Amino acid sequence: MKRTLITALICVLIYFNLSSQTSFQINFETPGQAKISNGIETPEGNFIFLVNNFASFPGSSHTYILNTDANGNILQTVVVDFYDYIILHQIIYNEDDGNYFIIGGITSYNDFIIDSFFVSRWTEDLELLSYSKFAGPFPGHTAILSMAIMDSNGQFVLVGYKKNPTCFGFIYVLDNELNLVNQKIFNFSSFIFSVSQFIYENSGGYLFTFAGKPPGFISSGEYIVKTDYSLNVIDYYKTHQIHGWGYTFITKYSDTVFIVTGKYSPPNPNISRDVGVEKVDHNNNLLAYNIFGKPGADTIDFPGLNPGAAIVDADNIYIPGTSNMDVIQFPYSPYLSWFMLNKTDGNLNLQWQKFYGGDAYYVLYSIIPTSDGGCVMMGTRYHPNNPTGVDAYILKVGPDGLMSVPDEPGGIQMREVILYPNPGTTQLNIQTGHDNLYIKLYDARGLLHYEGDVGQYFHIINTAAWPAGVYLYQITKGREVMEQGKWVKGE
After folding, report:
1. What is the tens place of the pLDDT at every residue in 103-162?
2. How many Å apart are CA 179 and CA 167, to the nearest integer?
3. What would the pLDDT profile of 381-425 be if each residue is shown by its tens digit?
4. What's the pLDDT score for residue 114?
5. Phi/psi class of residue 31: alpha, beta or left (left: φ > 0; alpha: ψ in -120 to 50)?
6. Three-point CA angle 161, 167, 171, nearest 5°
7. pLDDT value of residue 269
8. Which of 192, 242, 316, 321 could covalently link to 210 via disulfide, CB atoms 3.0 to 4.6 Å apart?
9. Burial readout 396-426 (b: 16 or more C-beta within 10 A, e: otherwise)
10. What distance in Å separates the CA atoms of residue 272 and residue 388, rounded to the nearest whole number?
11. How many Cα atoms are found within 13 Å in the side-chain-facing hemisphere of 306?
């Protein structure tokens, strides 16, 4: 592990220069909470990442643009400071002029109300060319920017919502010169989370995903709203399999077909799993769906906070999430968690499921596909050894989901199967995307204590009557050993 000093704030970058397997990890530390919001792969195969740093004292809450090579080595670090307090949100590449556009919010140290937005234009060398500031839709109230796209007309479309007490969704449209040309506020309770463009029979418009209660509907829910290019509402539909509030995102699969990801929480806790994905057309006809994660009424598996899906091509799709999500104590959770990555085909059939982490508390924010067929996962990492800091964490994996990271005790690991809690007491939870697995647990004397089949997605072993101590486990699929290690049973 190599630590590099970055800027006078003593920001520490921990990176690994990895093999040709096209994988790397970056742990970016700052004095406060470092949160990575978005990233992009450049035409040259490098990467640009946006990192926000939230600290409790003025002058330290800087935002950063990180430019890395294909192996995750930092080439350039840019501090963004053209306003007092900036929150970077999204980066978009314009193929026509080769410029990058970075979009975000603006606030002040006095009230921390995000009451205006900006769109900035940057060269490929990350030199600032221009920026445009415009007032938010809710004066005196914070407006959360959820997502931005550049449509086929060269316009920027920004969506988001106003925070409590009353939540309204908003849409802004800017031309390529960064002038505001249209806007809309939904006059009913709505949290807009994502936007995409659809084109059909020489016409089209925008699709938005939001949580709320449209007029004429009895209950709140997750919806897709369909508008024309003038932002007139054409129709809206309730999602099919995504029945949990918030974090519902839409990703363009083709001009008329979309992948929708979100939280799956049906009334029956015995069949509940927490990450849902749908494949729908622009009229919300359900073409395919799948559900990944842990059964139960909790939020142990959670969709990414701002991700959507990462679509490499028509038959290779990554669906992200966080396994063992702790919503209550976020982001300073004492528990261990994992990035959860599901790879599916074009019909959302699971190809494999892998978990990354287990040495700290990880939360996945966003994901992007990469030109080598892999993906980059971006989020946060909190470790009790640094009780006041949250690090921005980036993990790049190849098409097989494997990673080349030096083996270090207590370091991040890639798992096909995860066992938790560890230590545990009354039950042992086993989560996997594989089927036909078999587990054996041995006591400290080396005697077989338990064996049995492990079901796909989630399995529970009742350990309440087991003696306290250390157990060695081995999980196999046929003759292949999938996972092995130690599980500790507490008093």
Report:
1. 999 887 666 788 889 999 999 999 999 999 988 888 888 888 999 999 999 999 999 998
2. 26
3. 998 777 778 999 999 999 999 887 655 556 688 999 999 888 999
4. 84
5. alpha
6. 30
7. 60
8. 192
9. bbbbebebbbeeeeeebbbbbbbbbbbebee
10. 34
11. 19
> Residue 111's pLDDT is what?
67
DSSP state at residue 389: -
Which contacts qualify for 61-70: CB closer than 8 Å, 24 or more apart? Answer: 61/32, 61/85, 62/7, 62/9, 62/30, 63/87, 63/88, 63/104, 64/11, 64/28, 65/102, 65/122, 65/126, 66/26, 66/28, 67/126, 68/26, 70/22, 70/45, 70/46
Query: How far apart, in whole angstroms, are the C-alpha atoms of residue 224 and residue 206?
Result: 10
Provide CB contacts within 8 A for 445, sequence distance 6+: none
- CA-to-CA distance for 289 and 385, rounded, in angstroms? 41
For the record, the structure tokens of 393 come out as 């964490």
CA–CA distance, 370 with 399 (Å, rounded to integer)? 9
The pair of structure tokens assigned to 36 is 């990575």
Other C-beta atoms lying within 10 Å of the C-beta of residue 469: 14
Q: Name all domains of the chain by residue range, CATH numbers in brackets.
A: 2-403 (2.130.10.10), 429-489 (2.60.40)
